[in-house]
Specification:
The protein has 2 domains: 12-141 and 353-416, FAD/NAD(P)-binding domain; 145-347, FAD/NAD(P)-binding domain, CATH 3.50.50.60. The model is unreliable at 422-427 (pLDDT under 50). By secondary structure, it is of the alpha/beta class. It starts with 11 loop residues before the first strand and ends in an 11-residue tail after the last helix. The chain has helices spanning 22-33, 48-52, 85-98, 182-193, 217-223, 237-241, 259-264, 287-312, 399-416, and strands spanning 12-18, 38-41, 68-69, 72-73, 103-104, 109-115, 118-123, 126-135, 142-143, 157-160, 174-178, 198-201, 206-207, 211-212, 215-216, 246-247, 268-270, 273-277, 280-283, 336-338, 342-347, 351-352, 375-377, 380-382. Helix 1 (22-33) crosses helix 9 (399-416).
Length: 427
């Protein structure tokens, strides 16, 4: 059942939160703790993207024990497992009910624009004015498809990771998966197992083992302080925010998924897709260098973990250090791919937020939202983006610290402004 599905949008309110996912609900809890009047606008139901925009076999990349929000944590009987999309929906829905979040479900935001002392929010269920606005609609709203897609021969089916559900929806025949982050590897493995030959176009990626020295890699990154690293500590903040998601998969076996695994399972590895000409894909010859760099960075991370284990006094309580074999690539790079052998291209090339309804001068020349650690403009805030304030910012468990700091900023802003006049009638 929708939360407050029959409610109308008030003409004026202190705070509007756009998005009923984990970030939006965490903000709602923090605002309620401060007795700040607000509403959460959700285009579908709570956890809409997890309900409608995920492939069937997807599971979280973080273990269940890491799934927590302010005042709420996983309490099931499989703490070392990985939630399915349906389980994430249940987790979020339970939280929304627990905190009595004022969610206005099935409400689409059509336009937001600056107004006196705040912002005017236009929805398909009425308009309102607010003194502060929080963008919590997520970092993964719109698939990024490169322009080279336009040059693919007619007849090749194109599917994004957002539209993919299972191999059965694809034509029989060869599949080219473009992108080698967590999504690309998971889809390549699943599609290859269905009997369709898969070629994986590999660009920049982050390689890590699923478990290390007997514990989940996420445990080590959290314990060693890696996930708590702040954006102020990073030399190139914008690059850090563009780093691909690590090559991980959540399975009962806690298996490591990397390019070597896929190669052993029959997936063909090629370099980055650079262009299409005369029915052939043009591929980068830098695959060996790209993989060597990913291996180098992985081993640096493991060195850091080893140093922390030693300095913290737990080195003798865990397994001995080990290293994965270097990524195997062909000695001579493949520079072209005959697309006559490809029936489907799956774009696993990332996502971007969708703030197309925000009509305010807060975007750069590339259309990216400009912000300072989540502060976009006076009274305007964003949450849930990668490395917003900390390396863990986009994770479910990473919302609490960012929300606490940003809601403090928001509350101070409200103290400096006057209440919004009830000047707009609902539609």
């Amino acid at each position: 059942m929708s939360l407050h599905a029959s409610r109308r949008l008030a003409a004026a309110i202190d705070v509007v939160v756009v998005g009923g996912g984990h970030s939006g609900l965490a903000v709602s809890q923090a605002l309620s703790q401060r007795s700040i009047e607000h509403v959460v606008l959700e285009r579908g139901e709570v956890g809409h993207a997890w309900r409608t925009e995920r492939w069937d076999s997807l599971r979280l990349l973080t273990p269940n024990w890491m799934s927590r929000l302010p005042g709420h944590a996983y309490d099931g009987d499989d703490p070392d497992g990985y939630m399915s999309a349906g389980e994430v929906v249940a987790f979020l829905s339970t939280y929304a009910t627990k905190i009595a979040a004022p969610v206005l479900a099935r409400t689409s935001v059509l336009r937001v624009e600056p107004a006196d002392e705040g912002y005017r929010v236009v929805t398909d269920r009425g308009d309102c004015c607010c003194r502060a606005l929080v963008l919590a609609s997520g970092a993964f709203s719109t698939p990024v498809v490169p322009r080279v897609a336009e040059a693919l021969p007619v007849g090749i089916e194109q599917v994004t990771a957002q539209g993919y559900r299972h191999p059965g929806q694809l034509d029989e025949g060869g599949v080219l998966v473009v992108g080698a982050s967590a999504t690309g590897l998971q889809l390549a493995q699943e599609i290859q197992a269905s009997g369709r030959p898969v070629t994986l176009a590999v660009g920049e990626h982050v390689r890590v083992p699923r478990t290390y020295r007997g514990r989940d890699i996420q445990w080590w990154m959290l314990a060693a302080g890696v996930l708590d690293q702040r954006i102020e500590e990073i030399d190139d903040a914008e690059r850090a925010r563009r780093v691909p998601s690590p090559q991980l998969v959540g399975t009962p076996e806690r298996a490591t998924l990397d390019l070597n695994t896929l190669r052993q399972q029959g997936v063909t590895l090629v370099g980055r897709l650079m262009g299409v000409r005369d029915g052939k894909a043009q591929l980068s010859g830098s695959l060996r260098n790209v993989c060597a760099l990913a291996d180098l960075k992985m081993n640096r991370l493991l060195d850091l973990i080893d140093d922390w284990a030693l300095s913290s006094g737990i080195a003798d309580d865990v397994a001995s250090p080990q290293r994965l074999a270097p990524t195997e690539v062909d000695a001579r790079p493949q520079l072209g791919l005959d697309l006559r052998d490809i029936r489907t291209v799956v774009w696993a090339t990332g996502f971007r937020p969708d703030h197309s309804w925000l009509e305010a001068p807060v975007f750069d020349r590339h259309g990216n939202l400009k912000h300072d650690r989540g502060i976009v403009a006076p009274g305007l805030y964003v949450l849930g983006l990668p490395f917003l304030r900390r390396r863990k910012s986009s994770f479910i468990h990473g919302a609490e610290d960012d929300v606490r700091e940003l809601v403090a900023e928001l509350a101070a802003h409200l103290d400096r402004t006057t209440p919004v006049a009830l000047s707009l009638a609902t539609a």
